[in-house]
Amino acid sequence: MHYTFDFGWLLEYWPVLLKGIGITVELTLVGGVLGVSLGVACAWARALGPGWLRPIVTAYVEMIRNTPFLIQLFFIFFGLPALGIRMNELEAANLAMVINLGAYGCEIIRAGIQATPKGQFEAGASLGMSRIQTFWHVILIPALQRIWPALSSQIVIVMLGSAAVSQIAAEDLTFAANFIQSRTFRAFEAYFVTTLIYLALAVLLRQLLRGVGWTIFPRRGAASRAR
Amino acid sequence: MSDFTTWDILRNLLLAARWTVVLSVVSFVGGAIVGALLLFMRIGKGRAGPAFVKAYVEIFQGTPLLMQLFLAFFGLGLFGIDVPAWLAAGVALILWSAAFLTEIWRGCVEAIARGQWEASSSLGMGYVQQMRYVILPQALRIAVPPTVGFSVQVVKGTALTSIIGFVELSKAGTIVTNATFEPFKVYGIVALIYFCLCWPLSKSSQILERKLNVAHRNH
């Protein structure tokens, strides 16, 4: 192996990497918040919603879960303009991530909702809570708390999957790496540094989500810690 | 410019889908072999083995598959070999699958009650015997549904190999789109083919899980 590693380009190109990190973080935040919201809505529809809505949501979930993210992205960015739906690469990337996380989130959250004992619904009703109040306080929040670890890993997976959005020229971290390697011809080093950044982002995101879990579910969290 | 019928498009995509299938099978089988080796290191005695596997899993689950593909592609090139895309794709996908499979299977082995280990060792069984006759037969049963479920991730993961230039279903989709200028139709068909590959796997994983739960309730 006669190869000398050279990381000198970092001095010149770190702003490019920084900008890429910014876009990846932004995509993850938007995708995470909207994706989980969509997941909650779909989980409600599948578990408790009206009969006509269930097959539609099931079809959406199965379609997304059984096709690659890259193809979903290409379909949204290249395919949808044929129907007159045009968007720029960042909007397409965001939409793809929301739709993707929405489908996986739906399955995870639904599992949490279905694990709720039936008596809880009745208990909520007997306390004079409205259907919406019962859903929110009695069903959704405990369900989310139950499945929060699984949902967190799914959000991390979606963040890592966002590397593919560079393929529709959304200028995320992977796009930055591609740009740098095309300028410096230091492909291995560029991707190596980028991989380390992704690893750091994944670790940070996991910690952040754990923190979010503690703040959203404080009382129950405290109770289980006291036990 | 020549015209392309839907049949032309479908035929070319199906021909390319063969490579998606081949790469998926190779990655899954290879990943299973490497994953099994890692599993024995992870649950074995000693300190270095488990620590190594922990780090391995953390790295492969904490970085994008696309980056792993790039690093395999350019990293193998550092040794002065001209790396074909299929080789880099195969190596990266095998190592990636191994990380997930070993973690899934570790969960299954750890799900076996502690008493089973104690009971078998009180019968005078050694580690290998315990594994062979007591732990693995039970762990394998609960490992089947999530393992089948993970194969869906492998099939979907192969789509990313198009980015390093391996011509499979996704790459073929891009090539055909560039020739026909019908992205809506072509990517729609590509998605449908992926769905036809993945959905039976997802479904059988669900069915297996349900069957297994029935078996568990009888215990």
From TrEMBL, chain A:
Record-linked CDD domains: TM_PBP2 (cd06261)
Cellular-component GO terms for this entry: ATP-binding cassette (ABC) transporter complex
Membrane-protein topology: Multi-pass membrane protein
Domain of life: Bacteria
One GO-annotated biological process of the protein: amino acid transport
Transmembrane segments: 20-48, 69-87, 147-170, 190-209
PANTHER family: ABC TRANSPORTER PERMEASE PROTEIN, MEMBRANE COMPONENT OF AMINO ACID ABC TRANSPORTER
Family: Belongs to the binding-protein-dependent transport system permease family. HisMQ subfamily.
Listed name of the protein: Amino acid ABC transporter permease
Organism the protein comes from: Ancylobacter mangrovi
UniProtKB/TrEMBL annotation, chain B:
InterPro entries found in the cross-reference section: AA_ABC_transptr_permease_3TM (IPR010065), ArtM/GltK/GlnP/TcyL/YhdX-like (IPR043429), MetI-like (IPR000515), MetI-like_sf (IPR035906)
CDD domains in alphabetical order: TM_PBP2 (cd06261)
Residues that span the membrane, as ranges: 20-43, 55-79, 85-105
Location of this chain's protein in the cell: Cell inner membrane; Cell membrane
Residues forming coiled coils: none
GO MF, any single term: transmembrane transporter activity
Bilayer topology term: Multi-pass membrane protein
Gene3D superfamilies: MetI-like
Signal peptide (UniProt feature, chain positions): none
ABC transmembrane type-1 domain sequence ranges: 17-205
Keywords annotated in UniProt: Cell membrane, Membrane, Transmembrane, Transmembrane helix, Transport
A GO cellular-component term linked to this record: ATP-binding cassette (ABC) transporter complex
Family listed: Belongs to the binding-protein-dependent transport system permease family. HisMQ subfamily.
Protein name, UniProt field: Amino acid ABC transporter permease
Protein source organism: Ancylobacter mangrovi
Upper taxonomic lineage: Bacteria, Pseudomonadati, Pseudomonadota, Alphaproteobacteria, Hyphomicrobiales
